[in-house]
Amino acid sequence: MNNNNNREPSSLGIVGFGAFGQLAARHLGKHFEITAYDPSQNVANVAQHLGVTLSSLHSVSQADVILIAAPVSSFENVVSEIADACNPGALIVDVGSVKVVPAEIMRRMLPNHVDIVATHPLFGPQSARQGIEGLKVAVCPVQGNRHAQVAAFLRKALGLTVIMTTPEDHDQEAAVVQGLTHLIAKVLLRMGPLPTRMTTKSFDLLSEAISMVQHDAPEVFEAIEKANPYAETVRRRFFDLAASLSVELEATSTTQPHNESGH
Amino acid sequence: MNNNNNREPSSLGIVGFGAFGQLAARHLGKHFEITAYDPSQNVANVAQHLGVTLSSLHSVSQADVILIAAPVSSFENVVSEIADACNPGALIVDVGSVKVVPAEIMRRMLPNHVDIVATHPLFGPQSARQGIEGLKVAVCPVQGNRHAQVAAFLRKALGLTVIMTTPEDHDQEAAVVQGLTHLIAKVLLRMGPLPTRMTTKSFDLLSEAISMVQHDAPEVFEAIEKANPYAETVRRRFFDLAASLSVELEATSTTQPHNESGH
């Protein structure tokens, strides 16, 4: 991370070379010497294309900066293996969509001699298609003081809008932001193909919002709805309000059409 | 309506000078001599500003073209008064957000010597802020053959995208398009102020969609949800799918955070 820091980390180890790990490599390639670990055999081509050396989890964990972009299911196992292999002074960063649980896992399992910063880039391959400049990333200090360095890098080197926060504050807001978006998308997708002909501007916006999340892996939805300690409350609130609105609507008497409801 | 038609209608009577009646006057002023009727006393200034002469419902109903932009509650009464006052050969057009019920009312109550075209401009003052060019309007022939003339005018004179359809097809699609948009907006508005800080692109789109409909009059929501014969089915489907998703989510076991869920 070539900025104000006497130590000059030059090697980056990406743990989990899926959709987001690859997106990270694409944007960090000119700042780091990148190695990556992924259990899948299907990432060899894309790794080569991105100039990334695939290696074992152990050797990837010896990099100066370790980026954990591992899937839901293996997060805890991955962290424990990194804990055994990482070097003193290493900087360990995760990019999960929830922060309370992973921050707790990293703080508990990783050694005291490493710095830990929990982050959540508020974008994915879909929303990063036009580049990542100006997109948002949440940054939570977990251990050590290099969160300031990480924030400066994300801001200056990548042009991201950095939101410094805590895992708790992040998850509370994400429970609404991501929880509701994915919940509504899920319900609408189950309703089948949506109309495209007689659509209003507001419906077009709704459809676009859905199309951005509908291709996320099932684990994404699971993570957002289940691994966020605040998601269930928000979800129940949404379902309860929907249910009471449903009752109201069946109760009230039918009225005639109105003249101003185009948008 | 100054286009291919041996008869040259030059007077337009707008019945109901609310938000949409005023929007219509703003865009039709250079094509017609406009008079308008509204029971409210508060429209005098805007009428003067738009060069529209306010008059009685009876005299407004004697125009060559009568545009019904009356609120839900008074639609049927208004049509019966127009039926008594309108001239033979008049063209009567409504702009309600549902079409089956108003088309039936107009066909039943208006005389045979007038042409009737039911329309639904798929926009309102909000979405028309940047002008109406390219916006959509649904057009349903009801009585007579001047729907083609109306469609041509909307396309050529106003630059609108015209969708020729039937009241039934319109209401079926609108039940999803407007029914769902307003339903979701209603539920989210009841959840209180939405986050604006740690937002994703898809959530921003969702918020924008909501903001476009949240200022609609309560009658608009009522009309869309209650006066559309297909709305209840769509609504029940949405609520049922939401409920079953809710059950599934409480049932499944908690998982760990995932790495790619930013958008």
UniProtKB/TrEMBL annotation, chains A, B:
Coiled coil: none annotated. The keyword RNA-binding does not apply. Pfam families: PDH_N. Keywords: Oxidoreductase. GO terms for biological process: tyrosine biosynthetic process. InterPro entries: 6-PGluconate_DH-like_C_sf, NAD(P)-bd_dom_sf, PDH_N, Preph/Arog_dehydrog, Prephen_DH. One of its GO terms (molecular function) is prephenate dehydrogenase (NADP+) activity. The keyword Ribosomal protein does not apply. Residues 10-263 form the Prephenate/arogenate dehydrogenase domain. This is Prephenate dehydrogenase. It comes from Marivita hallyeonensis.
